[in-house]
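Listing 4. Sequential folding, example run.
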Amino acid sequence: MKKAQIEEFFARLAAADPAPQTELRYSNAYTLLVAVVLSAQATDIGVNKATEKLFKLADSPQKMLKLGEAKVLDHIKTIGLFRNKAKNVMALSRLLIERHGGEVPQSREALEALPGVGRKTANVVMNVAFGEPTIAVDTHIFRVSNRTGLAPGKDVLAVEQKLEKVVPPAYRLHAHHWLILHGRYICKARKPDCPACPVADLCQFKAKTLAS
């Protein structure tokens, strides 16, 4: 996709949704961090159901540790990999208190040093909580970037690095939300809804679905 096409691509997504938001529910940087950790291999809807009561009881690392792993497990048992995730939530809560005074750090390096936090999770927290123009490449962004020709790459890191180069600065802050939502609701994995796509004419996907 050429520079002018990429500019138009994001201009259209921005016009359709000027202020995109994460669909995960959270009340502060800590609950956002926990929600993103829980969202690995799980849907945002499933995470929101599990955290609705959990976050009312524990919206800080101190409260989460006081609640205890058994009760955390009980709240998140409907989510995939819940046992491991409960351990990570307790461990990262402990480290936040020990290393960061109970606050969520703003640097990628400090975030990735927390249990259960990889590059994608760190990028989401930096973007949503702290307004950094990071791009967290998930399965939706990976698909959209490759399928449309926007930022093709063999793996998520390659796609992230390509997006950082090609996304115009004016659109970088919200780019990852636009791409996630586009992949989730229009450029879907099995059957993309090309007739409803605002950027279909810019997209290089050869097997576009046609209107019936």
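-- end of first protein; second protein begins --
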Amino acid sequence: MSSAVAAGTGGAVSATPEASLEHDVRRVRDELSRDLLGRRHSAGHWRGRLSSSALSTAVAAFALGYFDQAQGGQKHREWVEGGLDWLAAHANEDGGWGDTVRSATNLPTTLLAWAALKAPALRTGSDGSETRSRQEAIRRAEDWIRERAGSLEPEALKSTVESLYGNDKTFSVPILTLAALAGVLGPEPEAWHGPPALPFELAIFPQSLFRFLGLPVVSYALPALIAVGQVQHHRNPSRNPLARGIRNACRAGTLRRLESILPSSGGFLEAIPLTAFVTLSLVGADLDEHPVTGKCLQFLRDSVRPDGAWPIDIDLATWVTTLSVQALGDSGRLVDVPEAERQRIHAWLLNQQYKARHPFTGADPGGWAWTDLPGGVPDADDTAGALLALHHLAQHQPGPIDAEDKLAAEAAVQWLIDLQNRDGGMPTFCRGWTRLPFDSSAPDLSGHALRALQAWRPHLSESTVRKLDRCVARMLRYLQREQRSDGSWVPLWFGHEDAPERENKVFGTARVLRALTDPEHRPWAEPARQYLLDAQNADGGWGGDKGLVSSVEETALAISALEGNGAPSEPQAIDRGLRFLVSAWDSDRFERPAPIGFYFANLWYFEQLYPHTFALSALGVKAGSNI
């Protein structure tokens, strides 16, 4: 059993007498709401905490050490040493690394950690040696890689990495770039042969044309397209004189674009892997003195944790704040927040709505990002979450919904309507950009948006309602087409490491089912409800699919969906699920969140607040007012 599954293991639920279930649920709800409120940031909202990441730590440590090598100094030795020591101490028992400390070993993360530990630029002794613990980590990682890739030969490594990602070059080419710079793909220029050159010259075109250019990376990976493409061109220029000349002519212009989309924090998307890949690529292209390089290095220094590790992103502050507000509202405990504090959260949330066109994606005003930090990018999921949170907060204000809330909601609803793809579904960031998975429509995004649109429909202008109704009709047709034969839907941004194809059908189905509240939705809702009922485990909980070990997160989502979509209740199934959550709370299992979240390119993470927010919403079923 993998560590990811073990993190959610429920075991047998202690027998809770039927008569006391409601009492236990109310007790846990009240304790959990107090706990959640106690986790707020000093500014009044929530910041949460993302899991530390071996992948982020490897790439960040390598970027800092590689810069030092280029400069002939040791400015970042402390950060590099800390990162390498953390990697050596946190390898899995099989010798590899997963994306989190609770994740099964995977090839991309193991390859990056091994390359960083082995890279001459990061060796610590005067003779280029490393500590015994790192030597052992390198040896065990090589054994694991040989078993999976067949050998450590460059061609075997290249072909194995490329086969993992197919046509999507968002992650495969950056991985191989670090491996080439670390020296594990053989001598130059042979090390650069194989992976396709990223066409960084396309970034010279206006942003409005990107969706028509067939970019080999997803929309939000534009910084990697530019920087990795530059180092590829610098190290292994095209033999075609025309292509080489075009790329030479485009270098300065694309670097100016890269600088223009760099946020003030120095972190692209506030993401450590993306920023570190950009940094090491610029250094590899002899651009270690470029302004973007310096700002990225500062971001990497600022984002390291005291134990030497890096997370995948700084935080999901806006996202976890909207989840927290919804959880308090669903469970009837938003009234526990003093009015002055509710107003503080309300004002903070309104302030996170984008009021100007976004320089990175070109998104119009009206959306929300996952964080309040400058590297955030507005997206469908966070905009839907913010709308639902504002709806809860507005319901707890005296009198009718005020003009400021209506104005924000009108802008956000219009933003979602404009984002909708031609197929009727919701993408993440950009409408119709590419056919790559992380830019395509997704059921979880569509279901979340559908719920938010329906919540605000009674409060919008007639003209917006007409557009909303057309949007919803197309979205329902999309969801009908995407429903699997077993009644489930598969999400984009959440998964399960031990499920077939790593799909989290319980999460996706729960997200969509929660929005199917109209009797007209019954033809799609009933098969979805039956799928969830069939997927419930003997311990009362749910995993990511039938037969997978139960977790707090998936159990809570399933309960909320079964009770919250307006269909006849399933009291026995829900009571069994609630008993699982009560037992999980009493055994402190909430402090061991499961790695169910995806970042870009299927990079796993867990978030400290997911068990708390998801479960608090579910506990409102028996203890309060689940809206």
